[in-house]
Each structure stands twice: as C-alpha cells, then as structure tokens.
Write a structure and sequence with these properties.
The protein contains 13 helices and 14 strands. By secondary structure, the protein is α/β, with parallel strands linked by helices.
C-alpha cells in the first residue's frame, strides 16, 4: 500500500481502464475489423499507446478510411521483435530515434521521419504523502528518498528508453544538485515496471505514489505532472551535449545508449504488408502537429525532419 494514501481513493476514468487493458494484453486495436477494410499495423513505443488509440488512429481513419492496428511495448522490445521477426509491422515507431537507426537500418529500413519530442518528469497521485509534498513545493528527490520501496516506478531500462532515461535522469540530477549517491539510492527504492502502460495504471489504482514518465503520458491520464528541470528532462535539444555525459548499457543485449533528447521517429519496414498505407500514416504523423500537441507531445520548429532517403509518397 502506498504510504499516506487517502482511504477514499478516486474514481477511475475510462482512460485508466484502457491503460490496464493495454498493459494486460500488450495490444490495442483501433476500431472494429471489417474483412474488406484497409488496415495498417503499427508496432510502437508504449508511451504512444493513447496517442495512437485516442488521437492518431481515429483521425487517420476518418481522413483515409484506413484502420490503425497498434501494439505497444518498450522501444527496446519493439526493436527486438522486429529483428527476430516475432512481429511483422508495417510501421515501427520509436521513442529514441537513434535506437531505431542503430537496430533496424541496413536490414529492415534505411530511412525514418522524426515527428515529435517529449520531456521526462514525474506523474503522481496528489492524495499521497509524496504527492502532497510535491504540491507544497518540496524537492522531488528528497521526497522520493523518503518513500517506501516500490512506491515509485520507472520503466524497465533493459526494455524501454523511458526506463533508461529515468536512470540517466537520476545520474544527471545527482550531478546537478551535487548529491553523491542519489542515483543508486533511488534505484534501490524504485520498482522497474516491465509493462510501460501499467506504470500509469499503477498510480491510478493506488498501488504506486508516482512514476517517472513522459509528459504526454500524464496528459493522457489527466494526472498531475512535475517536469524535471531542463538539465535532466531530455526535452531540450540544445542540451544534447549535457545529456550525453551519461549512458546506460542494457543487460540482455549490451546496447549502450547515451543520454539524448527525446525524439520520436517512424519508419516503414521493407517487409511491410501494406507499404502504401504505411507511408500514408508516416506522412500523417509528419503533417498533424496540432493533433500531436493535443496528445501532449511537442512539435518544435525543427520538426518534422528525415534521415536517409525518403521513399516516394512521403514529402516533408
């Protein structure tokens, strides 16, 4: 039980129910499948589950008549599923543009489009001791150090860029605030959640006080959000050199990720079953900046932008 939580709790929204369902099933389907309908399959970073299900998917279907069928996991897991061909998506979306290029270029694609950014911080339940402290302006790291083990969750850093960004944020915060040992102390306290969509459900259900998440995830769930300072929120491209002073190496694959700004990118795999519809969806992501902003993402003046040679049908 989360320390200091009110017994009354709060009513759960439709979104929280959806989040739990996505976490249990590992998939979410937009719309009802018609045997003669056009569809495009998406394998995406879990932080964009609600973005696709509540915003992009419905709007794309309204405009094109094509349904979006999405599955959502940590982006490391997404890349592994493509590499070992356990999944065969038309479109792959990553929360770390460099990760996609490092893992998929050469064998599965040779181009991508960056379409949005995000920032890292803490989504929290204001009815907990931790939440009350944040509402009163107390330091997040002092409050976090006072929590019980498991009260705060992060993504699994071996599966998910959000997870390794949490670890990197703790390390940068240690440097920024001159707090020796902060990173390791926090890692001893937090719970590593392997199912990214379950992070928000854990806070909403009362089993966690808070989670280190992207801003859009808190917006999706109407949850209070404390954005980390620019020095370690990975939301400021001009601070890329500072972010790059920390890194994380995954246990299972030995992939080393430097700290870098959050950049979402998308590509169409060379093995796509519906390449035309897939390219249309990537073009849609590039064009609909207002829609993405409504979903809690950030689209700066430098976006969208591409890497590699764009195929016919995509024009930035």
């Amino acid at each position: 039980m989360v320390q200091g939580r009110s017994d009354n709790g709060k009513s759960r929204s439709r979104r929280s129910v959806l989040a739990a369902a996505v976490g249990l099933a590992g998939t979410a389907v937009a719309g009802c499948l018609e045997s003669d309908s056009t569809s495009v399959s998406v394998l995406s970073a879990g932080s964009l589950a609600h973005t696709f299900e509540d915003h992009v998917g419905p709007a794309f279907e309204d405009e094109t008549g094509t349904e979006v069928h999405g599955e959502y996991y940590g982006a490391n897991a997404v890349m592994r599923m493509v590499e070992d061909r356990t999944k065969h998506p038309d479109v792959v979306v990553s929360a770390d543009s460099t990760l996609l290029r490092d893992r998929l270029y050469g064998e599965f694609t040779d181009w991508d489009v960056e379409f949005a950014t995000n920032s890292v911080g803490i989504g929290y339940d204001e009815e907990t001791t931790f939440g009350h402290g944040l509402e009163n302006g107390e330091s997040w790291y002092e409050l976090a150090l006072a929590t019980e083990e498991g009260d705060i969750s992060i993504g699994d850093p071996d599966l998910d860029p959000l997870g390794y960004r949490a670890v990197q944020a703790f390390e940068l915060a240690e440097k920024e605030h001159d707090l020796h040992g902060l990173r390791d102390e926090l890692l001893d306290l937090v719970y590593e959640e392997p199912e990214e969509p379950q992070m928000m459900a854990g806070v909403e259900s009362g089993s966690r006080a808070a989670a280190v998440v992207y801003r859009n995830m808190a917006v999706d769930h109407d949850m209070p959000f404390l954005e980390f300072p620019d020095a370690y929120n990975f939301g400021e491209p001009e601070l890329a050199d500072q972010y790059a002073t920390v890194e994380f190496t995954t246990d299972e694959e030995g992939y080393t990720a430097e700290g870098r700004p959050v950049l979402y990118n998308a590509t169409v795999t060379d093995e796509a079953d519906e390449p035309d519809a897939a390219r249309d969806l990537v073009q849609f992501l590039a064009d609909e900046s207002d829609l993405l902003a409504d979903a809690g993402l950030t689209v700066g003046d430098s976006l969208p932008r591409s890497e590699g040679d764009l195929p016919e049908g995509i024009d930035l």
